[in-house]
Description:
One of its GO terms (molecular function) is hydrolase activity. The chain is α/β, with parallel strands linked by helices. It has helices at residues 3-16, 57-61, 74-88, 98-107, 148-160, 177-188, 204-209, 232-239, 254-274, and strands spanning 27-29, 32-34, 66-68, 90-94, 112-116, 121-125, 137-142, 164-168, 193-198, 216-220, 246-248. It starts with a helix and ends with a helix.
Amino acid sequence: MNRDTEHQLELLGQMLGSNAPGQEATLRHGNVVQRDAQDPVQGEGTSIVEIRPDTTRELRKGAPEVIFAETKTGEQTIRMAQTLLAGTGRAIISRVPAETMTALQATFAEYETQVREAAHAMVIYQPGYVRKRSGGHVGVISAGTSDVPVADEAALLAEEMGCQVTRIYDVGVAGLHRLIEPLQKLLADGVDVLIVAAGMDGALPSVVAGLVPVPVIGLPTSVGYGIGGGGVAALLSMLQTCAPGLSVVNIDNGVGAGITAGLIANRVAQARKQH
């Protein structure tokens, strides 16, 4: 067990032990307020939790907290971003509706921001925030241009975990000759892990996994039509692969694919430095 792991477990113990069972208290974490079940204002049996951003996730897990904005109000998203900025110096926001994006840009006009239009994502940095560089290298491949929004979401997460990210888009099996040259370059550059996003029949991750000596993460997308539309055929095809070394995340889960790839690449980079 290394020192980082010991520190993470110590943090976990502190967090889990912060409030004993049955303790009557008002819990606060960032901008979150949770009232105890006996709260005299709200009455017996009432518990209110508005937001609870995990500001220690990256220390504990090696992966950052991400705000999923699609089903939140603009006010909730802004408050969560403010809490993460205060606690970590950065806020990563995914699936941002247009009106929320406008509100975020107005609220954080004095901050450094990165907007990824294809992924409908935004990252906000405190002034002076320094993005880390881990030495890990992640390749992100999309079968078609329609898969780019989810692929770019994955790329963003890997970048925010300190990885170098190389993107190769629109190289699906309908024109497989487009894949060979960029894939050769990725392998020559020493890529540590590949994310392959595909909709329709979802065949490209199996093809890539059968060719490369690095882990491949299949990312099915909800692109397609007919009986297997909505990403179902792509997901089942990837799960049913006979190519070794292919793991699969859920449909449109760019965040999950990017984080998993980042964890793998960062571990590989750490091992390189040690040896």
